[in-house]
Design brief:
The protein is about 45% helix and about 15% strand. The chain is of the alpha/beta class and about 200 residues long. It has 2 domains: about 140 residues, Rossmann fold; about 55 residues, no CATH class.
């Protein structure tokens, strides 16, 4: 089976990072906020302007992309899936990675170094074009059989084509669609794939 895996929100706990670091940033910069946990974008989650969100990521993106750890057991489970004959495709729309300039090259290198550092094995990494990052072209081009995703927008579009595992978060808790399964941890994902393969 060819398994597609998103990075932000699936390999990392993007939601936890946003809650922890964005609230700290707001307090340090005297920015009022109100958390709306059903929202996906950071500016919508904290009910602040897009410009504030942009300034936050300008300050914190490198730290997040370089140092924020993978979710527990992601490496272990992915290794098991590969050993059992599955192909792993990392499919990401991480900011900057679609640019054909120095900043794009630097972020792609950062992503690949982070995957190595966190011992995430894969067959291929695919960088999606932004801002239309619904991943449909990548799913079709690489004949992906199953996608692990957190973005409600992507889940909605991809689940019309292939089964999607929704990695649970508050911002996707209302995303209950046909052809989807909700999982809560990497070993929960492993159990689902094992049962599906039986």
């Amino acid at each position: 089976m060819r398994i597609g895996i998103d990075i932000d929100g699936v390999l990392t706990d993007y939601e936890r990072f946003s809650y922890d670091y964005f609230s700290k940033y707001c307090l340090e910069n005297k920015i009022d906020y109100h958390i709306l946990d059903s929202q996906y974008e950071t500016c919508d989650t904290f009910n602040v302007s897009k410009n504030i969100e942009k300034q936050f990521w300008k300050k914190n993106l490198n730290f997040y992309a370089t140092n924020y750890p993978a979710r527990p057991f992601a490496s272990e489970v992915i290794k098991k899936l590969k050993e059992e004959g599955n192909e792993i495709y990392i499919i990401t729309a991480r900011t900057l990675t679609d640019r054909q300039d120095e900043s794009g090259q630097k972020m792609r290198e950062t992503v690949e170094n982070w995957l190595t550092k966190n011992m995430i094995e894969y067959n291929k990494i695919i960088y999606c074009k932004r801002p239309t990052y619904n991943k449909i072209n990548e799913i079709n081009n690489y004949k992906i059989d199953l996608m692990i995703e957190d973005s409600p927008q992507n889940v909605e579009k991809l689940s019309k084509l292939i089964p999607v595992i929704i990695f649970h978060s508050e911002y996707n808790k209302n995303c209950n669609l046909p052809n989807t399964t909700r999982c809560y941890s990497w070993y929960d994902i492993y159990r689902y794939i094992q049962n599906k393969s039986c």
